[in-house]
Amino acid sequence: MPPDPNRHVVSLVSERSKSHIGGMATTEKKATRTRRADPAEKAFVYRGIKIQPVTGRRSPLSKALRDEIRKLAEQSRGEHVTA
Amino acid sequence: MASTSRPKPPASKSVFINCPFDDGFVPILRAMVFTILAAGYHPRCALDSTDGADIRVGKIAQMIGECDWGIHDLSRVEVEDGGLPRFNMPMELGLHLGARILGEKRHRRKRALILDAERHRYDRALSDISGQDIESHQNSPDEAIRCVRNWLSEHRPRNAEPLPGAAALQADYRRFQAEIGPLLAPRRLDPDHLTHSDFLFAVSDWLMAQAAAQQSR
């Protein structure tokens, strides 16, 4: 017996609408992703002057340097505190 | 180098740098860039988008339009082997002054610092620029820091925080160089050969790290 062509269409429509309605009807709080700014992109104060950091696309070298500069500063801060 | 999608800073905080980009001038350019960033301004130059490869006058003019501040270094305007000097720097200075004189109202805020290697050399070559802020850096990065810092300081709004002194900025720049060099050495790189973009990020990151250290003391 040949399959009813309408049956397939009907089932597709119902699947779609089910997921759509399901999402709308739920009382669960939607998990929203808050986008936190990278600390490297926040303004800071150096010698009393507010400085907006450089923004834009970083090269891999620049990313690596940023991490090393931070590490170096933390190390010297540690030495300063323990001294 | 591909163009970087850097959001444009406000004109009141943007400093256009018109200077040569050859290796011999890198120490002066880097010292000026460091000073501008440490003073809370944003350096803009032809290297921002292309690292100097293919910059057109239209793009330069647009950049000048987007900056209230402009530094024009004429120290390398000298007669070269072909018997002609490089006219790019005086032409860009002309664009800047033209925008201020003939442009819309907002361009009247524009300030220009004209730098040369020797004092009063311009008297012989470009006497029409008399009356502008003209300083000599004597091909010394320390002097370039002093000239740029003093000029920015002189034209700051009255209610703005005073800038650190030239000696403090010179010392900071030396510390930056001393600390960044060893980070690059294992990669067989030296600070003078960082791309312009990498240098901007390195200065910004270093200043931020110093700021954090100051806060924790």
How would you sum up this structure in a few lines?
The complex is a heterodimer of chains A (83) and B (217). Chain A is mostly helical. Helix content of chain A is 53%, strand content 7%.
Describe the structure.
- By secondary structure, chain A is mainly alpha-helical.
- Chain A has two helices and two strands, in the order H-E-E-H.
- Chain A has a domain at 57-83.
- In chain A, strand 1 and strand 2 form a beta hairpin.
- Chain B has 217 residues and is an alpha/beta fold.
- Helices cover 46% and strands 11% of the residues of chain B.
- Chain B has eight helices and five strands; from the N terminus they run E-H-E-H-H-E-H-E-H-E-H-H-H.
- Chain B has helices at residues 26-38, 47-50, 57-65, 88-102, 122-125, 141-154, 166-184, 196-216; strands at residues 14-18, 42-44, 69-73, 111-116, 133-136.
- In chain B, helix 4 (88-102) links the parallel strand 3 and strand 4.
- Chain B is globular.
- The model of chain B has no long low-confidence stretch (mean pLDDT 88).
- The interface between A and B is large, with 30 and 43 residues.
